[in-house]
């Protein structure tokens, strides 16, 4: 089970000439992982869209509005894996379905297995760091503004970063 206090879900997207970060503060998930036998490995993750934060209240409200995530109509973002494959030493590709803004599309996360360790309270913990890039227009997130000097206010490519520490169920 994902330990929310030791995990993070973030993203960056181009804004004019730089990248602006954001994060989701409310999420839940589970994963099953056997480094020696990947066929039964799986991931399920749910993010509460309204928990979005870019550290700017006005921007956050706009991102939660129907112009972008439409958090009232689409309260969750989900990822459900279909397959986990090795991609080198401690590296994996997690293939599955990402549902965002009511649209489900295939997505592949590049993941690094950070290890497994007992904590001071006797729990077994495992950690992963995973990234992917999506095109927001593929999910119906098309709001933008043309700049006077040419180009667009917001880029289409969104980099997603998920750092997860999970606690094994007893």
Structural features, described:
The protein contains one helix and ten strands; from the N terminus they run E-E-E-E-E-H-E-E-E-E-E. The protein is mostly beta strands. The chain has a ten-stranded antiparallel sheet with strand order 3-4-6-7-8-9-10-1-2-5, with helices on one face. The termini are close together. The mean pLDDT is 96.
List keywords for this structure.
170 residues, mainly beta, ten-stranded antiparallel beta sheet, 1 helix
Structural class based on helices, strands and sheet pairing:
mainly beta
Task: Describe the strand arrangement of the main beta sheet, using strand numbers.
Answer: 3-4-6-7-8-9-10-1-2-5
Strand content: over 45%
Averaging pLDDT over every residue, what do you get?
96
Helix content, binned percent: under 10%
Overall shape: elongated
> Any idea what the radius of gyration is?
17 Å
Q: Output the helix-strand order.
A: EEEEEHEEEEE
Q: What's the total number of strands?
A: 10
């Amino acid at each position: 089970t994902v330990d929310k206090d030791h995990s993070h879900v973030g993203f960056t997207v181009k804004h004019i000439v730089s990248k602006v970060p954001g994060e989701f503060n409310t999420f839940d998930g589970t994963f099953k992982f056997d480094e020696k036998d990947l066929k039964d490995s799986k991931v399920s993750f749910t993010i509460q869209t309204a928990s979005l934060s870019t550290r700017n209240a006005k921007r956050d409200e706009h991102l939660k509005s129907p112009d972008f995530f439409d958090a009232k109509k689409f309260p969750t973002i989900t990822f459900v894996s279909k397959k986990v494959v090795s991609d080198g030493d401690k590296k994996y590709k997690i293939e599955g379905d990402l549902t965002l803004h009511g649209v489900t599309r295939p997505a592949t996360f590049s993941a690094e297995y950070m290890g497994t360790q007992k904590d001071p309270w006797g729990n077994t913990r495992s950690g992963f760091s995973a990234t992917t890039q999506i095109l927001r227009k593929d999910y119906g997130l098309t709001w933008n503004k043309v700049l006077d000097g040419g180009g667009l206010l917001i880029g289409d490519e969104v980099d997603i970063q998920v750092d997860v520490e999970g606690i094994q169920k007893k």
